[in-house]
C-alpha cells in the first residue's frame, strides 16, 4: 500500500518544551509537521517568536492588498522586515534566527516553550513564558467562556 503524505496545514495545539541546540535549532512536535520539510515563516514579536505556515502569510497578503497605496507598502515592508522564511529539516527542527532569538531571551542549551495557537505557534523563552502564562490563561479562559456560551 502506498504511503500517503499529509498536505493540509495542521492545527497547532498544546504546549511543548524543547531544548534549543547549539546550532539554534528547536524540534517541532511531530503533530505540527504537515509536509516533508514544510515551509514556515518566523516573525519577531516583542517578547516571543511567532511561527506560521504559508496559509497565514496568504491571509496577511489578502489583508494588506486591501489597504490603500502607501499603507499597503508600509505594512508589507514592516512584515517583510520582521519575518524570515524557514524550513523544517529532515530531523523535524527549525533553525531560529539568532539575533531575533536572543532579542526575545531564547538561548542555546535552554528550553524554549512552543505554544500552539491553532493557526500558528509561538516560541518563548521558558522563564518569560512561565511569568506571563497564568495571566494569559485566565484571559483566554474568560474569552472561551463567552464562546462556549
Structure description:
There is one protein chain. The strands form two sheets. A six-stranded antiparallel beta sheet has the order 1-7-8-4-3-5. Strands 2-6 form a two-stranded antiparallel sheet. Helix content is 36%, strand content 26%. β7 and β8 form a beta hairpin. The protein has a single domain, classed as Transcriptional regulator MraZ domain (Chemotaxis protein chec, 3-Layer(aba) Sandwich), CATH 3.40.1550.20. Residues 1-7 have low confidence and may be disordered. The chain has helices at 54-65, 69-81, 98-103, 126-148; strands spanning 15-19, 25-27, 39-44, 49-53, 83-87, 93-95, 111-116, 121-125. The longest helix is centred in the last third of the chain and has 23 residues, at 126-148. The protein is of the alpha+beta class and 149 residues long.
**Count of beta strands:** 8
State the helix count: 4
The helix-and-strand class reads: alpha+beta
Distance between the termini: 46 Å
Q: Report on the biggest sheet.
A: 6 strands, antiparallel
CATH class: Alpha Beta
Furnish the topology, listing elements before pairings:
Blueprint: E1 15-19, E2 25-27, E3 39-44, E4 49-53, H1 54-65, H2 69-81, E5 83-87, E6 93-95, H3 98-103, E7 111-116, E8 121-125, H4 126-148
Antiparallel strand pairs: 1-7, 2-6, 3-4, 3-5, 4-8, 7-8
Short description:
This protein is of the alpha+beta class. It has helices spanning 54-65, 69-81, 98-103, 126-148; strands at residues 15-19, 25-27, 39-44, 49-53, 83-87, 93-95, 111-116, 121-125. The protein has one domain (15-148): Chemotaxis protein chec (3-Layer(aba) Sandwich), CATH 3.40.1550.20.
Amino acid at each position: 500500500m502506498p504511503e500517503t503524505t499529509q498536505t493540509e496545514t495542521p492545527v497547532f495545539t498544546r504546549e511543548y518544551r524543547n531544548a534549543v541546540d547549539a546550532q539554534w535549532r528547536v524540534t517541532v512536535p511531530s503533530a505540527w509537521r504537515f509536509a516533508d520539510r514544510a515551509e514556515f515563516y518566523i516573525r519577531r514579536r516583542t517578547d516571543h517568536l511567532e511561527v506560521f505556515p504559508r496559509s497565514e502569510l496568504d491571509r496577511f497578503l489578502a489583508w494588506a492588498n486591501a489597504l490603500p497605496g502607501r499603507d499597503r507598502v508600509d505594512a508589507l515592508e514592516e512584515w517583510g522586515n520582521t519575518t524570515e522564511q524557514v524550513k523544517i529539516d529532515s530531523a523535524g527542527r527549525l533553525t531560529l534566527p539568532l539575533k531575533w532569538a536572543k532579542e526575545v531571551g531564547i538561548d542555546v542549551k535552554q528550553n524554549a516553550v512552543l505554544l500552539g495557537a491553532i493557526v500558528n505557534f509561538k516560541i518563548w523563552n521558558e522563564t518569560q513564558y512561565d511569568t506571563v502564562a497564568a495571566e494569559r490563561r485566565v484571559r483566554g479562559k474568560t474569552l472561551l467562556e463567552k464562546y462556549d456560551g
